[in-house]
Amino acid sequence: MNSALLKKIRIGVSALFFILFTFAYLDLSGFAVQKLSVYVTYLQFIPSILKLLSIISIAATGFIIVTVLTFLFGRVYCSSICPMGTLQDIISFFARKLNNKKYFRLNKEYKFLKYSLLAVTVISFFSGSLIIIDLLDPYSNTGKIFSNLFRPVLILVNNFIAFTFGKANIYFLYPIETNGFSIAAIGFSLIILGTIGIMSYMKGRLFCNTICPVGTLLGLFSRYSMFKISIDKGACISCNLCERVCKAGCIDKKNKLIYFERCVSCFNCFEVCPKGGISYTTSIKQTGNDTPVKIDNKKREFISKTFLYAFGLTTISFGQIKIIPKKLSKIQNLKKNTVSPPGSKSISHFAGKCTACHLCVSACPAQVLQPSLWEYGFTGILQPFMDYKVSYCNHDCLICGQVCPTGAILPLTIEQKKFIQIGKVNFIKDNCIVETEGTECGACSEHCPTKAVQMVPYKNQHLPEIHTEYCVGCGACEFACPVKPYKAIYVDGNPVHQTAKEKIEEKIKQKVDLKSDFPF
Amino acid sequence: MDRRDFLKKSVFLGATAGLAGSLGSLTNVLANTKFYSPKSYDLVAIKGGEPAVMFDKAMESFGGMKSFVKKGQSVVIKPNIGWDVTPERGGDTNPQLVKQIIKHCLNAGAKDVYVFDHTCDYWKKCYSNSGIEKAVNDAGGKIVSGESEGYYNDVQVKSGSTLKNAKVHELILNSDVFINVPVLKHHSSSGITIGMKNLMGVVWDRRFWHQNNLQQCIADFASYRKPNLTIVDAYNVMKRNGPRGVSKEDLITMKSLIISRDLVAADAAAAKLFGTDPEKVDYIRIANEMKLGVMDLNKLSINRIIM
User: Fold this and answer.
1) Which CATH number fits domain B3-28+41-306: 3.90.110.10, 3.40.50.11440, 3.30.930.10, 3.40.50.1980?
2) Residue A284 pLDDT grade (very low, low, confident, very high; cuts 50, 70, 90)
3) What is the pTM of this model?
4) Contacts of residue A467 in chain B, CB cutoff 8 Å?
5) Lower Cβ count inside 10 Å, N or C end of chain A?
6) For A347-499, which CATH class?
7) CA quadruple B77, B82, B87, B88: dihedral sign
């Protein structure tokens, strides 16, 4: 194949995925995310694996395609599909635009670091915790950057324009009120953006070959790729052009070798080689001659033991995975359990599948889904929770389950959603306005979509009365309750989601005579 | 919509509304032989028709919308769009009614007709599922967000005894004509919700009201800017589980409409229609005591129309 064409295809595919990703995360209208998210997330490696663990469906097979592609052509995922890869390419592209003399060179390989990170990720995953994946999955981290950094900036710009035109009574854009603000999520996103920013500015895809566990894993797969990129030593004139454009830093000019494990299949070298001496060759005839592989039994032993340990731990721990979230409590009546989003089945299911990519956080129109801090415990840091201080869950909204790439939040039908009980209402009479002030309030009952909270006569006023069997745990009552600082009504999460009863009432019986006189 | 499009639509709508209006008055003359003098009525109550038809007919008793809207004026319409429910659930104002009101305003020569509400549920879903967003766009009005604190300005409520300050949407402050279009419903906080309660949707901080004697705050705010017209939608009336309602079973079909220049009178009449004595609705009683309007319907000239 024409080598220049390969690179163009690679750039085209990367741009396509990156643009879709950008729209999904930054669409302020809320229309695009629902339609685009599946294209953005289907091929994302870790989310796809997690999704298959939740639901057996075609929608959860993306990682198989990625694996097959890797065994054929190497790390095309890193090249084009991973948004963090493309983000780094954009940064290093501009770095090189700014400084013409900035060339790539062969990067040092930090083997111990990269395999340790992969091992820790795998072990923690099989022992039932997603914390390392939450912190390292490249797709999810790019999601965090877009959701927590880029989106707020876009909202600021949008609001500035909207208010400016609003002054002239032109209302074609509307401002967006943001209530949630997670310092932890913003801080973490800044750290990630800073790290990949510096690393890619200096050394191209060093992050992908050192820190990213997906990069390391796919690198291991690519050792066995059917087709590998290599240098035709006979054709090579040692011009070094290929090394200068290799953003993965995997071309060794001295030995005229390409370390394919670290290659992200960008095809930059194909294009620059004046002799056309770099191309895909089948590795079957070469039997790995070009890639120096030293057989190290100790290493193999380490890896096999690691996996043995990991699997062993998993079987022991699967029966016992219980993540009991606790909120630091200052006074009585604080929540025992955090509320996880509808469709997440249980807190343990959610915590065991969510990679904190924050696509649901971006997509949630009510903004009730917010990145957590300690709400799910330390290992669930940044996984989204239902934050009723910020908002409440819209009764008819299904979007979080529709966009979730990992199956942490499973898609629901509207009928299912209306009766899933994610938590139960609790009422503290001594905090309630009606009791303390002796005036009417009723904000909780007003907002309740199922009338699990009803106002009943009480000392010439009306006091809330709760019926937990009808409660879906949407948090509308808690959000609406005007009492500060501790609410009089709040939702305590169900660690395992339950089903609410349908409130069935007879049709109002009142005859209306449309021909009779008015009562005044 | 670009300007040309807008002009075309306005001309078309103006023409059709004009035609409909003239036909309407003709039928009215035939149907209603009783003499009345337009503009002299304090309140018009009508029942037995579809929302838009009843509105057309009722407005004739006031001499048409031109009695309220002059050429080139800006109009703000405040329906109840508080809940993400469909029109047949009766949680929000009837979209057909809102559409007809906008048409009348544009026909009377209004420059712009704005519609907004500070909703309870997520505003965009309320706007679309209530059918009101579409109705507004179809009629040539402009739907505006109420969901941003930046649109709300601090004002003083001078006659307020509990509520002395509020943040009010700029459209209420800047528009020449203010039309209040509540829907009559049962309400868990205030007993029933009608015109005065609907004004909670033009302020930013509702929690303050709930914290500080809700009934008094509702009456206090009615003194701030009285609507030029209050149009009570009582077509489908929610009799229980209000203000959001749980299902269609909560409704009865009353096919009624009450229009008044007097906010308190409109609420009093609607309360009676609902089956409640206005005296027993605290905020109506308080507003009457504050002389913000007339609760005693016997003191008013009322045109009652049964279709």
Assistant:
1) 3.40.50.11440
2) low
3) 0.85
4) none
5) N
6) alpha beta
7) negative
